[in-house]
Amino acid sequence: MTWDGPALVNLADVLADLYPEKDESRIAVKAVGLKAGMIKFSDAAVLNWFNILSYANNQDQVLDIVDFALQAYPKNQALRLAKERETIPAVKGPDIRTATWRGPSAGDLEKLVSGEEDTLVDVCFLEIGFQRANAVARIVLPSGSCGSGFLIRGGLLVTNHHVLPDADAARAAEVQFNYQRTPDGLTAAPVPFRLAPERFYRTSDAMNGDDWTVVAILGEPEGRYAPLDLADVEIKTGDRVNIIQHPMGLQKQMSFFHNRVVFVSRDRVQYLTDTQPGSSGAPVFDKQWRVVALHHSGGMLREPGVKNSHASYRNEGIHINAVIRGIASA
């Protein structure tokens, strides 16, 4: 088994279950001799371990981390498979066909399936989506970790705080537009830009805020790529959302299957649309290709502000209205 993106994601899922706290992961990093200063630690456990493993892979030390974990969990089958360089089974969410649905009732679902909701769209839906995709970029950090972000008016980049938590991180990062596959299956040449936090930098903390960062892009990206507009929107449970992203730091991809919104509050939107580590900072679009959220996390999540809420396997974004309010007051 080679330690490619999917293998690292599966191992990150395993380690996130065993060591969910960031402080625990730091102990492992120190124990195997990795340089903590080169790693982008995150409060999201799976993303945290994916970043650690990505750096460890660059140092050829993934198996050192596996050995460390095996000392504490010698009977863990996934770790033993990793030690033998065999494929680790992917951690899967519930089967969408059998999972407990917390959105519309069963009767409503029957009506939706029978045609009460019109799922037909004009063919220009694809063209508009491709135009919106031009504004989405990959963010590459010195550690090798990657995130997603998108261009808005004023030559500004929007992403998560946990991707670019301060001006120094922004200054060290590279933003790559056009990193995507062509219709011929080839990889297009990425167009790199640097960031200029001295011109503009605003952020909202991931733990106590809304996990967004807005920073100026050096140069004139709007001369090549049309920016996305940010405006207050209404989004509700049952709507469909699409995400254009760089999962695992790979070429730009779109997720639009199983894309139901399952929870909405003033500040958060939760959905079933697929993402991976590296998707943090991606724009979440509605059916009209309006930005409705800033993707920031996924996994077993609770519904914020809801008493006795049970954790469910889903993804979550910051409601774009909350991001707009935050930028205006920063």
Would you tell me the overall average pLDDT? 88
User: Order of strands side by side in the largest beta sheet?
Assistant: 5-4-1-2-3-7-6
Q: What is the CATH first-level class name of the largest domain?
A: Mainly Beta
Net shape: globular
Describe what this molecule looks like in 3D.
About 30% of the residues lie in helices and about 20% in strands. The protein is α+β, with helices and mostly antiparallel strands and about 325 residues long. The protein folds into three domains: about 5-85; about 105-120 and about 230-330, Beta Barrel (Thrombin, subunit H); about 135-225, Beta Barrel (Thrombin, subunit H), CATH 2.40.10. The longest helix has 14 residues, at about 5-20. The termini are far apart. Mean pLDDT is about 90; it is low at about 110-115.
Q: What descriptors fit this protein?
A:
330 residues; alpha+beta; Thrombin, subunit H; 3 domains; 7-stranded antiparallel β-sheet; 9 helices; 14 strands
Q: Could you give a short description of this structure?
A:
The chain is α+β, with helices and mostly antiparallel strands and 330 residues long. Helices cover 28% and strands 21% of the residues. The chain has 3 domains: 5-83; 106-120 and 228-329, Trypsin-like serine proteases (Thrombin, subunit H), CATH 2.40.10.10; 135-223, Thrombin, subunit H (Beta Barrel).
